[in-house]
Design a protein that fits this description.
Layout (H helix, E strand, L loop, with lengths): L1 E4 L1 H14 E9 L10 E6 L17 H4 L3 E7 L4 E3 L8 E6 L1 H15 L7 H7 L2 E6 L10 H4 L9 E6 L2 E6 L5 H7 L1 E2 L29 H8 L5 H4 L7 E8 L2 E11 L20 H20 L9 H5 L6 H17 L1
Parallel strand pairs: 2-6, 6-7, 7-8
Antiparallel strand pairs: 1-9, 1-10, 2-3, 4-5, 4-12, 8-9, 11-12
Bound molecules: iron/sulfur cluster (2 copies).
Length: 339
């Protein structure tokens, strides 16, 4: 059912929702950007319409809400351990997010919940608390290529939300929210709108195989990449982490095990015993990432992994563009196919 809200009515709705849910949305943090005088647009808890940045793209995806950067898995002593799972009584979460990011979370579900016999319980518990409020995109940003990856659309949401001149149009799909939306909103016809065109068009490689391995493209990238890892931490589909055991200074017999985001691009990621590192070169690391996003994930789950959000292109200090990389890979496969 569709509803129309004035700003005041939507704020009353959010105030009541907040008594039952934690609400996360894109927010503007003034002056906190990467460079002096710029703003940071990032996820945070929100409670009012004016706090929600409907018209800005976040530098980081909402994945940090259900897959925290730094998460304690369990506490231990010499004799026992205690798992650190969110208590049942913790509130469920509402996340305002875009279609590309919902598609990104579906990729994370595949990796963390459907990849082999064991489900990631830490992810599963937080993921199970999340309800999606789909934000309508009224524009496509410079680096977006979601239409090429098919991630411009989704049906996986509880409520669709579009803000227009201070009014809010909603379409409620999840019955759990019907009563509260009907309490504050006026019935209205609401049709979800999705982005149908991006400035950037990417030709996704149909087939991609080891014949691209020796191409000079990777040397070009190796000369430019600084292995900072920004392209992976901002990506809504990257899920790699490392494990750290922290021993408490005042009692070294006790501690906690944490998992912390890691990246296939940074130094040390593939280091093994005896000083072996099997992707020491930066070009090899970028090739691994490209193969994972464009080929390996698809072989396993039948979906192209990258959702075309363009955040990695925005974040790279060396202007290495993943959309251009994908187009180059399509060209290279075309060339090798003709030989
Ligand atoms: S565009 Fe870049 S950041 Fe976005 S999903 Fe694809 S690889 Fe990840
Ligand atoms: S953001 Fe750019 S420079 Fe940094 S690791 Fe990724 S490709 Fe390399």
């Amino acid at each position: 059912m569709g509803y129309l809200f004035s700003a005041d009515a939507f704020n009353s709705l959010l105030a009541e929702l907040k008594t039952r849910y934690k609400i996360f949305a894109p927010k503007i943090y003034r002056g906190k950007g990467r460079t002096a005088g710029t703003d940071l647009v990032a996820y945070g808890e929100a409670g009012e319409l004016a706090e929600i940045a409907f018209d800005r793209k976040t530098a980081f995806s909402p994945k940090e809400i259900i897959f925290p950067v730094n998460q304690t898995m369990f506490y231990f002593t010499k004799e026992e351990f205690q798992e650190n799972l969110p208590p049942k009584e913790d509130k469920d979460m509402i996340i305002f997010l875009r279609a590309c990011d919902i598609n990104g979370i579906e990729r994370m579900d595949a990796i963390l919940l459907q990849n082999g016999p064991y489900r990631d319980v830490y992810y599963e518990k937080l993921r199970g608390k999340a309800r999606f409020f789909l934000i309508a995109c009224d524009q496509s940003w410079e680096s977006c290529f979601c239409v090429s990856t098919g991630s411009n659309r989704t049906e996986n949401y509880s409520v669709y939300v579009r803000e227009e001149n201070g009014q809010v149009f909603c379409l409620v799909k999840d019955r759990d929210f019907e009563e509260i939306f009907s309490k504050y909103g006026r019935p209205a016809d609401v049709e979800p709108r999705f982005i149908e065109e991006n400035k950037i068009r990417v030709r996704l490689p149909e087939e991609i195989d080891q014949r691209v391995f020796g191409h000079k493209l990777w040397e070009e990238y190796a000369a430019r990449c600084s292995a900072c890892g920004r392209c992976t931490v901002c990506c809504p589909t990257c899920t790699c982490f490392t494990i750290q055991d922290i021993f408490y200074r005042d009692n070294p017999d006790c501690g906690e095990r944490r998992r912390v985001w890691a990246s296939c691009l940074i130094d040390g990621f593939t280091d093994m015993a005896a000083g072996v590192s099997f992707r020491a070169g930066y070009g090899e690391r970028l090739r691994f990432r490209a193969m994972h996003k464009a080929a390996d994930f698809k072989k396993r789950f039948g979906l192209f992994m990258c959702v075309g959000c363009g955040r990695c292109d925005d974040a790279c200090p060396e202007y290495i563009s993943f959309s251009k990389c994908l187009n180059r890979l399509s060209e290279i496969m075309g060339e090798v196919g003709q030989r």
